[in-house]
């Protein structure tokens, strides 16, 4: 008999028929009640075993973590806590799980312990919920763009363009690393002998390639893995993370902000509607976690309130210049509570500043725009009419409470001459990026896009605080287990 999913059984209005379910035992009480979970939902189904007619040998093997198959009658539950249960007539152990050795005991484990057991942590309620929410968010991303007529583009993962400067890169090579790699006369490595005949890296962003597609297909998006060898061991950075990068021809910076805000709201709304049970569980998890914090550090809103708040309010749009004024006059700046004190226009914003603006000052998502050209990437559109020395670019960063930067984007510099000037000034090799410059030579036009770090979005929606807990197998400095 084909087995049913637990989620369908729990939602079934038809009872008293024979069903089969397969899953993993969460708990087994009184030699009689199995809480069975198959991953389809956060909820377990109660399976009532007829222990008098079940061999002791079998009962002993119903242990936490074991995979089992049960057949029986789906009936209204006689106990409290669940509407339906399976009154088991046949029970088969599919895979034993040694109760002494199975790491996922039915008790509270630390997140650190769970990270070390990332291959099993998804069998817990919290991680099951997080990974279902992650899957739903990913689907919503595609649905949003597809409904709006965007095309999904797969940009290369191995790239030969190292000019982008978005972060430290991982090199890709098939040359030996034991010192026997072929060398040039000056002693440097001869990459002509390498697999691709040149030096290559794992991509830090698909943007530049994405732009070439936007200048043909109009509206495109990428959704793929990106890699940064940044040695920043923070709760917001991974060495391997997933990025969503829409790019749209003829969009200016204001259109870009509208798109980003609408997109974020859509995917959150979609997930709130689809993942109610998982989010409710995660909300309670967060409440529990916060109980151990001093009152002042607890958040004023519950998880679902925070999500509704984002849906119901406009993101506050603030120029970099206004933000600097706010920060300069802020109490933590005056009392020297910031690690980096803001004195001058032109200062790069650190996450402490971003968080102050979002969490203390505006208390809502913030879009900062028009940053100093000096602290932003070469491809961002230079604003017209800016004072010499105070040039700004049409950049925008979206800052979220508890997260900091979730989106980084800009209107792109569409003018060939200005772009080349900029590259020269920064020492970026024009020859290396000949194909990128071609987009400005042949039918150039205003266009804009942004990158959203998928894990930072999952962090926000799940209310988790460490980015290592929202990706199945995190890659961070000194850690690539699994
Ligand atoms: P940050 O200042 O937080 O390091 P960034 O300025 O380097 O971010 P961008 O290069 O603009 O970020 O990348 C676009 C988005 O990708 C960011 O807004 C963020 O959501 C996400 N992101 C960047 N670096 C990482 C990382 N190491 N791990 C996870 N997400 C990241
Ligand atoms: Mn970074």
UniProtKB/TrEMBL annotation:
Name of the protein: Asparagine--tRNA ligase
Catalytic activity: tRNA(Asn) + L-asparagine + ATP = L-asparaginyl-tRNA(Asn) + AMP + diphosphate + H(+)
Keywords for this protein: Aminoacyl-tRNA synthetase, ATP-binding, Cytoplasm, Ligase, Nucleotide-binding, Protein biosynthesis
Aminoacyl-transfer RNA synthetases class-II family profile domain location: 131-472
Similarity section: Belongs to the class-II aminoacyl-tRNA synthetase family.
Lineage, uppermost ranks: Bacteria, Pseudomonadati, Bacteroidota, Flavobacteriia, Flavobacteriales
Localization, UniProt: Cytoplasm
CDD domains: AsxRS_core, EcAsnRS_like_N
InterPro entries named in the record: Aa-tRNA-synt_II (IPR004364), aa-tRNA-synth_II (IPR006195), aa-tRNA-synth_II/BPL/LPL (IPR045864), Asn-tRNA-ligase (IPR004522), Asp/Asn-tRNA-synth_IIb (IPR002312), NA-bd_OB-fold (IPR012340), NA-bd_OB_tRNA (IPR004365)
Molecular function per GO: asparagine-tRNA ligase activity
Gene that this polypeptide is encoded by: asnS
Subunit composition and interactions: Homodimer.
